[in-house]
Design brief:
Blueprint lengths: L2 H21 L5 H6 L3 H17 L6 H23 L3 H5 L1 H44 L3 H15 L7 H26 L2 H11 L10 H10 L11
Keywords: Coiled coil
Length: about 230
């Protein structure tokens, strides 16, 4: 996990405690009203940070910069909350809070786009492979579950809250790991995996039909049940 993520995670307890200390008082009703959803935003921030780590969000320089900006805004807000002693100090909080929530919204928006790309790259192929296994009559139950996992991943709704998105993605990635283990146990060869993935995407060629692939197809009784392109 990057230093940015580690710093932000260390900041969360401080930010949460600072918000609780300041908002429980009756000092300024107007400020309290403007910060009324602070607890929800802290939960949202925590979910976004966890999801950023889960999906390697900072691998993209632009996304890493957005996360760094969020860190700066959150750090600034935390300091103001911790140091505020007068009503004048507290009156400056809504502006910093608004900037922080804007940065959070920006990172969350980019994170959802980032996930959609990952889903297309990592999960959509499961649909093709699973459909193919069902069609060939090989490991039909596994094929059905591969399809279900892939479809759920690529159809995650943008409207769900950050915490639900995090929980959904964590569960999907864990499910995929288990399915991959099962698939490997069925095919037993990386070459077969590559061939099935290409076949499912209608991109299989004779070059991919290696001796090991042909042996697996013969053993599974599926050699004559599909066509491949010569090149």
């Amino acid at each position: 996990m990057s230093d940015t993520l580690l710093d932000l995670e260390e900041l969360l307890p401080q930010l949460g405690e600072a918000v609780r200390q300041r908002l429980l008082g009756d000092t300024l009703d107007s400020v309290t009203e403007k910060l009324r959803d602070a607890e929800r935003q802290i939960d949202r921030l925590e979910a976004v940070l966890e999801l950023a780590g889960e999906t390697a969000f900072v691998s993209d320089p632009g996304q890493a910069k957005a996360l760094q900006d969020l860190r700066g805004e959150a750090n600034n807000l935390a300091k103001e909350l911790q140091c505020a002693e007068t009503s004048a100090d507290l009156q400056d909080l809504p502006g910093s809070y608004q900037e922080c929530t804007k940065s959070l919204a920006n990172v969350e928006r980019q994170l959802r786009t980032h996930w959609r790309r990952l889903a297309e790259q990592e999960f959509r192929p499961l649909i093709s492979i699973g459909t193919l296994l069902e069609r060939l009559g090989v490991a039909v139950d596994l094929g059905h579950r591969l399809v279900a996992c892939g479809e759920e991943a690529v159809n995650v709704r943008d409207s769900i809250a950050a915490a639900e998105l995090r929980d959904t993605i964590v569960a999907l990635r864990a499910q995929r790991l288990n399915l991959d283990r099962e698939r490997i146990a069925v095919t037993r060869e990386p070459e077969v995996d590559e061939f099935l993935a290409a076949l499912g995407n209608q991109q299989a060629t004779l070059r991919l039909v290696t001796p090991r692939v042909r042996e697996w197809l013969e053993k599974s009784g599926t050699l004559d049940r599909f066509d491949v392109r010569p090149t």
